[in-house]
Amino acid sequence: MNTDYAAQANTSSPILKVSGLSVDFGASRVVEDLSFSVRPGETLAIVGESGSGKSVTSLSVMRLVEYGNGRIVSGEIRFDAGNGPQDLAQASDADMRRIRGNDIAMIFQEPMTSLNPVYTVGNQISEVLTLHRGLSRSAARTEAVRLLSLVRLADAESMLDRYPHQLSGGMRQRVMIAIALACQPKVLIADEPTTALDVTIQAQILAILADLQRELGMAVVFITHDMGVVAEIADRVVVMWRGRKVEEGFVSEIFANPQHAYTKTLLAAVPRLGAMKGRELPRRLALTVMDGEVPRRIGKDRDHDTADLSAAPIAEIRDLTVRFNVGKTLLGRVTHRVHAVEHVSLDLRPGETLALVGESGSGKSTIGRTLQGLQPATSGQIFYQGSSVADMTGADAMRLKREIQYIFQDPFASLDPRKSVGFSIAEPIRTHGLIKDEKALQARVAELLVKVDLDPSVASRYPHQFSGGQRQRISIARALSCDPKLIIADEALSALDVSVQAQVIELMMALQEERSLAYLFISHDMAVVERMAHRVAVLYLGQVVEIGTRRQVFENATHSYTRRLLAAVPRAEPGKDWGRTLMEGEIPSPVRPVGQEPTALSYREVAPGHLVAIED
């Protein structure tokens, strides 16, 4: 939180003031009569559930909402950078092109759809620098390296020549942040900027934004569903629900004494690290949901004892290594490799949730993709129900694809933009011939949409017509369509606001209990992992540094990296100093010259089933 803000709040006039903003998409009103303001040096957080109008508000300020068939029907967006106020709602396209990226910059929610896939990272950063700051190509490249280093990307120089698809989700998000900060804007609109980031990177990015804010007097409009981040960085909070502002106030007031029923529901849904202390098992919690205008509590708190530890593993990973070639000579000889996964061994039993946690680029997603056969292994073996995945052909290979489903990190990139969401959910059912009758198939699609808290009538809509959180729920519905035995959930909850996240967690745990589903749960949200996981594996630079039960890892974190990971988690208690320490220095690179292989780790058992890598 900006401690200087309270002192200057009464002395500075707003740099951005939104008054009576209403936005329509076709016949639907998605933002209605919204007003707020933000002053230089202030951080205003806009919170609310998926579909509440948060992102539409940010797109309206940037005047990008028109490009998505939206229309500002009333209201003013006053921007005053010191040259007199200007109403952006009435500004010309030429004026907006000058303002965007230069005076007002935006970090978008989904980095893969915001970065151009046919241009290198360096080209995309340099474009901003040459267009707005007039730098030469060589100067722009030098500045691009500095910006990538600023957001803690290793090998910044070589990163410039890579394409977005060659980066992890967290890496892509940091590139977007570097682009947004390139021109040192007066107002930064950050739409879920830390959603794809693990907690250590998130802590550093938030610190970078805070430093720049102090240095430049930059105003920040921070759109997020992470209430821990809100508590840590915000000065004031605007709570949105169904397109309207329902509450506004200082962050300490909102957290300590929420007035509106929806705000109370939102805060009740926040997962809190440490809430599971002393418990051996994951726990299903009663939900507080809005019933019209009134909060209603459903379900009850109970332990989640679904893991059959006596059963044979449903999936086994033995000494898995995955490497990617990234450097070649003119003659095609490989010079460097990315050591994404090195000598990893894991097993997963029916009804069990095994969480993989670690920094972006630590190999979590690579393990998941390799398990489903989307990525070939360099060495090692993977077994599914006792059979080698590499040896499966024909009917066995099809059964594997049906019984192991994947929920991807980026919901927009994983849904076909040309197909309705109903078609996408039904496609796996058709492919595997599970339901032949078209009427029964549509009923099944409707049932799946209801399960993820969406109205069946949305089946005819297309992905671009949904918010990021709604798209992620559609991806979850599609993964459930084939009645799988194992689901690989790759940051499946990261795009969801806390209230919907709580409902989806309950859904996933209920399905696990009903069907003995196994989850490989890839996440950077440590509070969610603490609540859902039976066991936790901590990854660093492609290797497991600590593995054990949820209670062992969270209550007796032994490896220094695990302790730093837990220390970086933001807490939803404004004003309280948790003594967080940021990781310093350069990130070790997973890229190594051919022949220079990393040393395989050795382990010691600190308790039954609790293995910790031996540190130098």
Protein architecture, described:
It is a single chain. The chain has 616 residues and is α/β, with parallel strands linked by helices. 33% of the residues lie in helices and 26% in strands. The strands form 6 sheets. It has an 8-stranded mixed sheet with strand order 20-21-22-17-23-24-27-26, sandwiched between helices. Strand 1 and strand 2 form a beta hairpin. The two termini are 37 Å apart.
The CATH class of the largest domain is Alpha Beta
Number of E strands: 27
Structure class? alpha/beta
Average pLDDT confidence is 86
Largest sheet: 8 strands, mixed
**Any idea of the CATH topology of the largest domain?**
Rossmann fold
Topology:
Elements: H1 5-8, E1 16-25, E2 28-38, E3 43-48, H2 54-61, E4 70-79, E5 86-87, H3 93-99, E6 104-107, H4 111-114, H5 121-133, H6 137-150, H7 156-159, H8 169-181, E7 187-191, H9 199-216, E8 219-223, H10 227-233, E9 236-241, E10 244-250, H11 251-256, H12 261-268, E11 283-284, E12 287-291, E13 294-298, E14 302-303, E15 315-328, E16 334-348, E17 353-358, H13 364-372, E18 379-384, E19 387-388, H14 394-403, E20 404-407, H15 411-414, H16 421-431, H17 438-451, H18 468-480, E21 486-490, H19 498-515, E22 518-522, H20 526-532, E23 535-540, E24 543-549, H21 550-555, H22 560-567, E25 591-593, E26 603-607, E27 610-613
Helix pairs in contact: 5-6, 6-8, 16-17, 16-18, 17-18
List descriptors.
616 residues; eight-stranded mixed β-sheet; Rossmann fold; 22 helices; alpha/beta; disordered N terminus; 3 domains
